[in-house]
Write a structure and sequence with these properties.
The chain has 337 residues and is of the alpha/beta class. The chain has one domain: Metal-dependent hydrolases (TIM Barrel, Alpha-Beta Barrel). It is 51% helix and 13% strand. It is built from 15 helices and 8 strands. An 8-stranded parallel beta sheet has the order 1-2-3-4-5-6-7-8. α5 packs parallel to α6. The radius of gyration is 19 Å and the shape is globular. It starts with a helix and ends with a helix. The model has no long low-confidence stretch (mean pLDDT 96).
């Protein structure tokens, strides 16, 4: 078991479902609050770190709102993205496709300055940490009035080599994927990759809608696909990747704490699963922690290895880049002692 844990900790990992705002250290948000004179409901960094820890869904929302409220200038995104690079490096993550909450950015900041700072952060972060990060800004379902502006912003960023895709996040309940068909069609025609959170807060019909109406290439979360056999069959047939985030599902009570995570059943049924951490520092987890959780729940090391390979192969990297990453991982496996 000790060797398995060390293997998990040291293996070169890939992650496809992680929100930058939820993977930034409380120290960095504290620094931004001081710089931008934002009053937090605590008196010290120590208290802020304690406040930052996950306690409940309602508390998570409070933490998220307070944390992002410290971001007041375009250059603050450079700060948080650089911090994200540092965190990914600490997990031995070598490649990431990460979300940015574009619906909450575009009206508050000059878009040209935003793109400039984000592009600089990507270049500097990769050079400093030897981690590659590619970005997928998303539309918040519950802020539908932002959708067209987000697509414009993401399309401009795509043309400048800053973004690789468009996502759909936010609250599923009451905000069906059908509302965003036009925006996803525009993004697809512009050459952007398309992903959508679905099958988390709403059942399998949400997964089906993301596939059929949005032409989503990956499904964020998607664990409730298991509620409908016909949707499971479709997902298995087309081998659409699921970006599964176990601890997030436990924290948000999508999965009861006393039950093993349904990713094991998804794998058993032939669904293409990847493993991810969602909002790790706000959910008191990590990608290493996600692998350790599944190991403790009885998934063997070979299955965990396959999950990392699935993640590599489900990325939006080129075929050549995927071969290179797989080769790097295979060398690690061969050389691990």
């Amino acid at each position: 078991m000790k060797n398995n844990i060390r293997f998990i900790e040291e293996m070169p990992k890939v992650e496809l479902h992680v929100h930058i705002e939820g993977a930034v250290s409380p120290d960095t948000y504290w620094h931004l609050a001081e710089k931008n004179r934002v009053k937090l409901p605590v008196e010290s960094l120590h208290e802020w770190k304690d406040f930052f820890k996950f306690k409940s869904f309602a508390h998570f929302i409070d933490v998220y709102i307070l944390a992002v409220s410290t971001i007041k200038k375009p250059e603050d995104y450079k700060t948080i993205i650089k911090d994200f690079f540092r965190y990914q490096k600490s997990q031995n993550i070598v490649y990431t496709e990460a979300f940015l909450s574009a619906s909450f950015m575009i009206e508050s900041f000059n878009q040209e300055e935003l793109l400039h700072n984000i592009k600089e952060a990507l270049i500097e972060g990769e050079n400093e940490y030897c981690v590659e990060v590619r970005l997928i800004p998303d539309i918040a379902r519950n802020v539908p009035e932002s959708a067209d502006a987000v697509v414009d912003f993401v399309t401009n960023g795509f043309k400048e080599g800053v973004f690789i895709g468009l996502g759909l996040g936010g609250l599923e309940q009451g905000y069906l994927a059908e509302k965003f068909v036009k925006q996803f069609q525009r993004a697809g025609e512009a050459g952007l990759n398309l992903v959508a959170h679905a099958g988390e807060g709403v059942g399998a019909e949400s997964v089906l809608s993301a596939i059929e109406n949005l032409n989503a290439q990956r499904i964020g979360h998607g664990i409730r696909v298991l509620e409908n056999d016909s949707v499971v069959s479709l997902a298995k047939e087309i081998q659409i990747p699921f970006e599964v985030c176990p601890n997030s599902n436990y924290r948000l009570k999508i999965v009861p704490e006393n039950e093993n995570h349904p990713i094991a059943e998804m794998i058993k049924q032939g669904l293409l699963c990847t493993l991810n951490s969602d909002d790790p520092l706000m959910f008191s987890t990590s990608l290493i922690g996600e692998y350790k959780l599944l190991l403790a729940q009885g998934l063997d090391l070979q299955t965990l290895i396959q999950l990392n390979k699935n993640t590599i192969n489900s990325s939006f990297l080129t075929d050549v880049e995927k071969i290179e990453l797989n080769s790097k991982f295979d060398r690690f496996i061969d050389e691990f002692k």
